[in-house]
TrEMBL record:
Residues 402-416 have a biased composition (Acidic residues). Residues 385-425 are annotated as: Disordered. This is Reverse transcriptase.
Length: 439
């Protein structure tokens, strides 16, 4: 077998392995068969799995090793490798090469300046030809304008050879993340909401929670012809409806809301504010979730949990603002039902002067509470009509300890930037999040 054939066979094997890995991950995460490919490789901060594609990784390591050899500290190794590269380019040009060899263009996979002729050359296959092919597949440019300053450039990332693997993996992950967010089908909807807040590592820390539960359902609507909600029957049975609109889930939705409200109340009390909960505004029927005085003025904070879609979160924020703005200063707190964080929530921290550690701990707990509450709703929805819905043993989500109320953020310096109800949250019952809810 020729060297070219061997390389092609190796890439075909990696492609097949990628396919099998996605099938395996799909089984672990209880994903539907139509799960989009970018989901497996997108950043965990937007709900992806954050894994590496083997074919991409092979190209990344090829480029990294080629660049590292060309900048090796050992002058003997460095000179031998550069001479081999130059010889490969000359043989590709069949002795019709220009005076100055286009080393950077060659390694970057360019076909300009006569480099297109190299595809017909019999220069053989070696590390440099493989690096050229890998750079072309990944859209990477290798800048060799300086002997000691070789740079590997892709999209908005420019790294030295020693950091090539990490940098190119970041580029690949960013590309899959963009593909997932821009997915025209329903699969990228939640990712758009989660991408609104990308400074913290909350969603990466919540990663262990994103596993399948034991419900046995891979998506809400089954393969039956009737796609209406099995509980209320009024709308199609989708994540949007089950988590936010189903009337039969109102009790658990109120419990989810009140859990976040309790966390907010605890935070404000620790900050020294004298808060009142669900008190009616004099002469009005409106009852803001939390109310307190700041510099002699009324400040209200109202919690709303909505679907993880930028449009839904913006509308929820505006509704709360329009509802209360004529009665004082209103600071809506908008949390997605699957953990999205609306960026304007951080105005609460800025206005009240809450320190980064306390606000980071609250943000993490609030997002976790939204996920837990949503999973309670999902399990109750799936178990509707079951003879014994309490029989299943649901493993718990990772939760913060009672004494760990101020969790140290990994990026401490960053800025981080429904009223009342009759059912209060009790206990620490947790249910694992189903990965398929991303869809």
């Amino acid at each position: 077998m020729s060297e070219h054939g061997f390389v092609k066979q190796s890439m075909d094997c990696l492609t097949q392995l990628d396919t099998e890995c996605r099938k395996f991950l799909g089984l672990i995460c209880n994903l539907p068969n139509h799960a989009t490919v970018p989901f497996f490789y997108a950043d965990r901060r937007v709900g992806g799995l954050g894994t590496c594609r083997l074919t991409d990784d092979a190209d990344i390591w090829t480029i990294a090793r080629a660049a590292q050899l060309l900048t090796c500290r050992d002058p003997t190794v460095r000179n031998i490798c550069r001479e081999q590269l130059h010889d490969t380019i000359r043989r590709g040009f069949r002795n019709e090469h220009p005076g100055v060899l286009p080393v950077g263009e060659y390694l970057s996979g360019s076909v300009d300046g006569g480099l297109y002729r190299l595809r017909y050359a019999e220069a053989g296959s070696n590390l440099w030809t493989l690096a050229r092919q890998a750079a072309k597949r990944l859209g990477v440019r290798i800048d060799v304008s300086g002997d000691e300053n070789l740079r590997i450039v892709a999209d908005d990332v420019s790294v030295s050879p020693v950091k090539a693997v990490r940098g190119l993996r970041k580029v690949a992950r960013q590309r899959y993340t963009r593909d997932l967010i821009s997915d025209k089908s329903h699969q990228g909807v939640v990712a758009t909401g989660l991408s609104l807040e990308d400074k913290s590592k909350d969603m990466a820390r919540l990663g262990p929670a994103r596993h399948p539960s034991s419900s046995g359902h891979s998506w809400f609507c089954s393969q039956e012809q009737d796609t209406s909600c099995r509980r209320c029957g009024k709308e199609n049975e989708t994540g949007f409806h089950v988590l936010n609109h189903c009337e039969e889930g109102l009790q658990l939705a109120t419990k989810r809301h009140n859990t976040i409200q309790d966390l907010l109340e605890s935070l404000l009390v620790k900050q020294g504010h004298d808060v009142t909960i669900n008190n009616a505004i004099p002469g009005q029927r409106l009852r803001p979730d939390v109310e307190f005085q700041l510099s002699g003025s009324r400040v209200m904070v109202d919690v709303v949990v909505c679907y993880d879609q930028p449009g839904s979160m913006e509308n929820a924020y505006q509704r709360k603002y329009d509802k209360y703005s004529s009665h004082g200063r209103i600071l809506p707190l908008v949390v997605g039902s699957l953990g999205s964080w609306y960026p304007r929530n951080d105005e609460i921290r800025s206005i009240l002067g809450i320190n980064g550690r306390s606000w980071g701990a609250f943000r993490f707990k609030a997002r976790l509470a939204a996920i837990q509450g949503s999973m309670d709703m999902v399990c109750a929805h799936f178990h509707h009509g079951a003879p014994n819905p309490e029989a299943e043993d649901n493993p718990p989500l990772p939760v913060l300890s009672e004494e760990g109320e101020e969790v140290e953020e990994e990026e401490e310096e960053e800025d981080g930037c429904g009223g009342g109800g009759f059912y209060r949250h009790t206990g620490n019952q947790t249910i694992e999040i189903q990965q398929h809810l991303v869809y």
